[in-house]
Write a sequence for this structure.
């Protein structure tokens, strides 16, 4: 098996990366920085986002695994003290052809500016915000005007990204088995003159939405952790991407267990303290 490791770059993650290389060599795994089968990210969810964008052009034959060196992550779900077990499972499953993979949906983001269109893919979300003033834009669903949005911005997230920025905006947490995108508002202006729905919306795979700008003010756009530079932005079209991202699963760790562990914890189980 060919593998690549990306470290967050802090001392703990770098040391763990070195240890990973030693264990991998012992288990007959081959380091390959250009065309790996498995990409291991060591750090946090942010590190896995970086790994995802680094290997965006290889998604059809790569699976990701995350080891967290901080708190529990949604993409990084192996602990540092489980490193030996992970490497063993990786090499065994390769030999036995037991490659268990789960696939999560992505967002296809098509940015139209100055007569051109450019496509990006988001693992967590795409956000659009007014850089200097209120975002004023039409939100269209399947080609028809849904609402005129005025406010700080709009966040469109994947199911696996629903636990990130989307959650801070009050959006719902969505299981990644659902092929959908979620539109969440950022501080919309609502009064007798301006009106938005006020709730998050989930669009299924065969629907799309478009954010059409009503003025030429500067906007701040992000795709995951990446700021996107755009001049003369006209509109952004978003939908569930055809392509998915794959994660190698060497043991079960259900999504709702991860949500519970990250946001609720075992202290809050209702029993008297
Ligand atoms: P960052 O500001 O360094 O990290 C943002 C936090 O989001 C980190 O704690 C990160 O976890 C966590 N995170 C990333 N993906 C997640 C996911 N799918 N579920 C739950 N938590 C997640 O930025 P970054 O490391 O470059 O990551 C960019 C991401 O930050 C964006 O995609 C966006 O979702 C998120 N963000 C959130 C807010 C907000 O909640 N108000 C604002 C801006 C950006 P780790 O510590 O494990 O890396």
């Amino acid at each position: 098996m060919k593998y690549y490791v990306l470290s967050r770059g802090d001392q703990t993650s770098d040391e763990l990366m070195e240890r990973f290389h030693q264990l991998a060599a012992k288990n007959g795994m081959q380091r390959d920085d250009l065309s790996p089968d498995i990409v291991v990210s060591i750090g946090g969810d942010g590190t896995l986002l970086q790994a995802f964008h680094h290997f965006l052009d290889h998604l059809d034959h790569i699976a990701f695994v995350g080891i967290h060196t901080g708190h529990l992550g949604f993409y990084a779900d192996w602990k540092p003290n489980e490193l030996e077990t992970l490497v063993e499972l990786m090499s065994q499953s390769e030999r036995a052809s037991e490659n268990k993979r789960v696939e999560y949906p992505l967002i296809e983001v098509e940015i139209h500016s100055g007569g051109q269109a450019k496509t990006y893919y988001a693992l967590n979300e795409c956000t659009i915000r007014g850089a200097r003033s209120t975002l004023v834009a039409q939100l269209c669903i399947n080609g028809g005007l849904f609402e005129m949005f005025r406010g700080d911005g709009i966040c469109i997230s994947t199911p696996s990204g629903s636990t990130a920025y989307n959650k801070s905006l009050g959006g719902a947490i969505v299981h990644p088995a659902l092929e959908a995108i979620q539109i969440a508002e950022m501080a919309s202006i609502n009064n007798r003159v301006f009106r938005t729905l006020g709730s998050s919306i989930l669009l299924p795979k065969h629907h799309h939405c478009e954010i059409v700008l009503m003025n030429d003010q500067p906007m701040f756009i992000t795709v995951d952790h990446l700021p996107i530079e755009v001049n003369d932005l006209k509109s952004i079209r978003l939908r569930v991407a055809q392509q998915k991202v794959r994660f190698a699963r060497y043991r079960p760790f259900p999504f709702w267990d991860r949500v519970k562990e990250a946001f609720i914890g075992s202290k809050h189980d209702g029993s008297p303290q």
About this structure: Residues 36 and 217 are 42 Å apart (CA to CA). Residues 44-46, 49, 70, 73-74, 124-125, 160-161, 163-165, 168, 224-225 surround NAP (CB under 6 Å). The mean pLDDT is 94. Helices lie at 11-26, 45-54, 83-95, 165-168, 255-263.
